[in-house]
Amino acid sequence: MSLIRVETDARGVATLTLARAEKHNALSAQMMTELEDAARGLAKDTKVRVVVLAADGKTFCAGGDLAWMREQFDMDAETRRVESRRIATVLGALYDLPQPLIGRVQGNALGGGVGLVSVCDVAIGVSGAKLGFTETRLGLIPANIGPYVLARMGATRASEVFMSARIFGAEEAVRLNLLSRTVEHDDLDAAIDAEVLPYLSCAPGAVAEAKALMRDLAGRVVQEQVDLAIDALARRWQSDEAREGVGAFFDKRSPSWQ
Ligand SMILES: C/C=C/C(=O)SCCNC(=O)CCNC(=O)[C@H](O)C(C)(C)COP(=O)(O)OP(=O)(O)OC[C@H]1O[C@@H](n2cnc3c(N)ncnc32)[C@H](O)[C@@H]1OP(=O)(O)O
């Protein structure tokens, strides 16, 4: 039985749903494989314009499957390394999606569940949701999610929430730059619908390049950033999308994106 659902509507909005509610969507090996495959498939699907990451049940995601982790205790070092790479790989596949990734955080997100939130471009959470990096309570560490969390909140705040494993509310998650905003539960679907709309009127290639460029610029010195930006814009000027978008402006019509 599949632990992931992928549904794409006529507008090109794909919803990737964690479907393991009875285990609070804990990330088992099977689920991570399915999630990674789904993300890689969506990345290649030119009809998909936006991806929404959602979850069944009351919990968004309870993190890595602790039963799967317990199996690692008696594995040899090489197998443990392969398995510990699994979380990094699935987070990487989601992070690398060329389309905007919107998190629909309908409930609590713990451990690796916050990792999923941290690879979203935008994440809207319900105001009652609780989040926390609970790994250190379990004698583990939030390792593979570290790079994404560090980029969002900086080393000082990341160390504090990692070391203390304290649970915090959705409003604090906004201040920590994990969630983009909070809404009441009943308003969540409307908020997600409103969130995806602007992307649908933009050129898909330009959206993907804007996302890639911002990531590429991060951590570089200013002169390198400027050089990369010049190259990116020069490439864009050669694109059919730029011809269509600018042409449509002067023709006073809506652009048509292929
Ligand atoms: C590198 C490390 C990365 C990580 O992500 S480490 C994992 C971090 N995650 C956590 O610390 C969360 C662990 N889970 C919980 O604290 C609780 O659960 C919840 C708060 C999410 C929900 O509590 P409640 O409503 O009382 O439900 P319930 O009876 O605890 O759970 C129902 C079933 O779900 C299973 N489950 C929940 N979380 C996980 C998990 N992370 N891995 C594996 N199974 C999990 C339980 O065991 C149980 O199962 P059964 O019905 O068979 O007894």
TrEMBL record:
Its EC number is 4.2.1.17. GO terms for molecular function: enoyl-CoA hydratase activity. It is an enzyme of class 4 (lyase). Keywords: Lyase. Pfam families: ECH_1 (PF00378). GO terms for biological process: isoprenoid catabolic process. The keyword Chloroplast does not apply. PROSITE patterns: ENOYL_COA_HYDRATASE (PS00166). CDD domains: crotonase-like. InterPro entries: ClpP/crotonase-like_dom_sf, Enoyl-CoA_hyd/isom_CS, Enoyl-CoA_hydra/iso, Enoyl-CoA_hydra_C, Enoyl-CoA_Hydratase/Isomerase. It comes from the Bacteria. Belongs to the enoyl-CoA hydratase/isomerase family. NCBIfam families: PRK07468.1 (NF005675). This is Enoyl-CoA hydratase. It comes from Marivita geojedonensis. The lineage of its organism: Bacteria, Pseudomonadati, Pseudomonadota, Alphaproteobacteria, Rhodobacterales.
